[in-house]
Specification:
Blueprint (H helix, E strand, L loop, with lengths): L4 E2 L4 E2 L4 E5 L3 H12 L3 E6 L12 E4 L5 H10 L2 E4 L6 H8 L4 E2 L2 H7 L2 H11 L6 E4 L2 H11 L3 E5 L9 E4 L5 H7 L10 E5 L3 E11 L5 E3 L3 E6 L2 E7 L5 H17 L4 E10 L4 E7 L9 H4 L4 H9 L12 E8 L6 H6 L3 E5 L10 E9 L6
Parallel strand pairs: 3-4, 3-6, 4-5, 6-7
Antiparallel strand pairs: 1-2, 8-11, 9-10, 9-11, 12-13, 12-14, 12-16, 14-15, 15-18, 16-17, 18-20, 19-20
Helix pairs in contact: 1-10, 3-4
Amino acid sequence: MSASLDAACRRLAPGACIGVLGGGQLGRMTAFAASRLGYRTHVFCPEEDGPCAQVATRRTIAGFSDYDALADFADQVDVVTLEWENIPVEAVAFLEARVPICPGAAVLATCQDRREEKRLFDRLGVPTALWRAARSKVEVAAAVADLGAPVVVKTARLGYDGKGQARIVTPEDVEAGWRRVGGVEGQDLPIIVESVVDFTCEISVIVARGQNGAMTEYPAVENQHRNHILDKTVAPARISAKIAETARDISRLLAESLNVVGLLAVEMFVVQDGGVLVNELAPRPHNSGHWTIDACHTSQFEQLVRIACGLPLGSTERFADAEMENLIGDAVCQWPELLAEPEARLHLYGKNDVRPGRKMGHVTRLHPLRQTK
């Protein structure tokens, strides 16, 4: 390792190498932030030409079950972080025994399993939708009878952007919903069944928590989805100061309870009476935080680099309000028009294969600051 490590606070000097698990656009933007502060990055991912591999200083192309490659990777980096929460926990634990990693395997084990997330919320008294765990079609039917339709059935693991989810509107829909999430007769499938939430808007808060437990957070933002994929983020969310404070307090509680070192994105619903229900967690940079690159003193990606390297947390103050729009599928073909738009700040991810539902880039537009109500 080329950089000295302060054992007291794991502070790494510029020139150190940050390992990144996962080769997507979140890793790409983390690598950009690291480079600006003088750090090198080494990406470990299965894809040879992924967005992060295109820009990282070094790359290891291997599967997460290749422990020889993981050991070599650990020898070449000073600290490890991740850009995707579905890295196998076993791989993270293997690395954690060899090199500092944030967040660690314990955080990942909770955030990878929707049942464990829900149990955490229940233990902490954090409001969430009514839910039940199930493993079979019979148990799903029992949960629907208990909760009352409509409900949403979700796989406990590996679901994102609407994948692994189905809505059950009537008890007669149980069979179709079970099969839609991958259920097979006679085989267990860990899932959760949730009551449908009548919400006014969806919001998220990204908390940054340093190695010493210091925390800061970005303002709550409003998220609008299309076909279960984040379409637009409005920053800050158009909610009352009281609701924003509640969302912030819940997010801080969760980050501290999990002992997160890194970032924690907390996705929430604002319901009709002004209450806040927590939906899901992501222990990494989050799509709803992309606007921070262009509108905040410290982006979420720089914040992650600071935490990984033991540096002070940066200011999360914004100098502008923002609207971030994802460029999904062939929407990326608008790039010439967006470049010609004076106030549009375009970010493309280097993906050559345009597919429906695939996040190809995003565009952020800044606006004068407004005060929350």
